[in-house]
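Structure first, sequence second, as always.
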């Protein structure tokens, strides 16, 4: 089969390799579309270490070629694959935090993933997709599950105010999910006028460009209190500092962005004085997949506007190069395997 194989950092090639052989009970899936993620870029660059050779890709959908022990699908079914594989036996798995399993692994990072014609998956990681969700948009559901999992951790209630800092793909999904949960007002903040305009079409009540008046504007939009929940979706320490300042006394911070800094200058006294709750989120739980599929199916969340490019699988390196360049008009890049 054809696969995009990473031999070493920045050494990627399309190769013909042996077809994967499903283990006992595993499901074989012919991959039809996959999404390219910032994690893929970091693996490609070598900043996330992996064992080589490695087939990347953890946002993938396809058609079932061999069922295995999966009870909810049949051959030919369209499915999405949860790339987070866990042991099911450890303490974390037993208490419902299987997404944090220390014995688990991520397909596309720790084991071969979806940038190939076929891959195998555990039966519990395969979820059927309705025909109403297109193949080009469906890989975004994997990203959406991580956003939904994160929002479930902070318990957004109807009528609560939410600020989303950073309006990339994840930020736009956070806007829509917060609206679906009844939040009001939902405020999106980014420097990009294109992304502010997109957020407004997707349901944001207000959008702002960050400047010296942003905090005052957030106060005005939240009855002088500050936001009940601030979602930091940029992964930048200075933006985290702004999130602390925008939250109301007794509010919640959702740190969705990934920080690589080892030290930071932050308004730490405000964390104490405001008695802020800080929540971090990693990956998703299996229960988030059916919920996200339902939200997309009923139209509560739109994925089509978040797709900016669809490229053939062989253009993976070009797609990764695009991710490494600043471009406010580029959103999600999808690979067509067909």
């Amino acid at each position: 089969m054809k696969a995009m194989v990473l031999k070493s950092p920045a050494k990627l090639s399309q190769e013909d390799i042996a077809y994967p052989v499903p283990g006992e009970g595993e499901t074989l899936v012919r991959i039809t579309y996959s999404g390219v993620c910032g994690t893929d870029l970091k693996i490609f660059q070598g900043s996330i270490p992996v064992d080589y050779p490695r087939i990347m890709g953890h946002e993938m959908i396809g058609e079932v070629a061999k069922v295995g022990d999966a009870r909810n699908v049949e051959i030919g079914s369209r499915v999405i694959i949860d790339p987070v594989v866990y042991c099911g036996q450890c303490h974390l798995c037993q208490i419902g935090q299987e997404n944090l399993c220390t014995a688990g692994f991520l397909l596309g990072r720790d084991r071969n993933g979806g940038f190939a014609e076929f891959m195998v998956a555990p039966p519990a990681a395969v979820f059927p997709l309705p025909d109403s969700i297109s193949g080009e948009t469906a890989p975004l559901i994997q990203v959406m599950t991580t956003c939904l999992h994160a929002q479930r951790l902070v318990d957004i209630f109807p009528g609560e105010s939410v600020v989303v800092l950073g309006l990339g793909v994840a930020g736009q999904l956070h806007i829509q999910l917060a609206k679906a949960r009844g939040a009001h007002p939902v405020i999106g903040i980014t420097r990009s006028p294109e992304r502010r305009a997109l957020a407004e079409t997707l349901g944001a009540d207000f959008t702002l460009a960050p400047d010296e008046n942003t905090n005052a504007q957030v106060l005005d939009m939240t009855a002088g209190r500050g936001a009940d929940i601030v979602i930091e979706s940029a992964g930048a320490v200075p933006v985290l500092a702004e999130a602390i300042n925008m939250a109301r006394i007794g509010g919640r911070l959702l740190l969705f962005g990934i920080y690589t800094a080892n030290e930071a200058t932050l308004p730490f006294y405000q964390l104490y004085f405001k008695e802020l709750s800080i929540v971090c989120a990693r990956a998703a739980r299996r229960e988030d997949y059916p919920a996200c599929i339902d939200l997309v199916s009923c139209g509560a969340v739109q994925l089509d506007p978040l797709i900016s490019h669809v490229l053939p699988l062989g253009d993976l390196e070009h797609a990764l190069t695009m991710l490494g360049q600043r471009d406010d008009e580029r959103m999600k890049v999808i690979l067509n395997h067909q």
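Margin note: The first strand starts at residue 2 and ends at 8.
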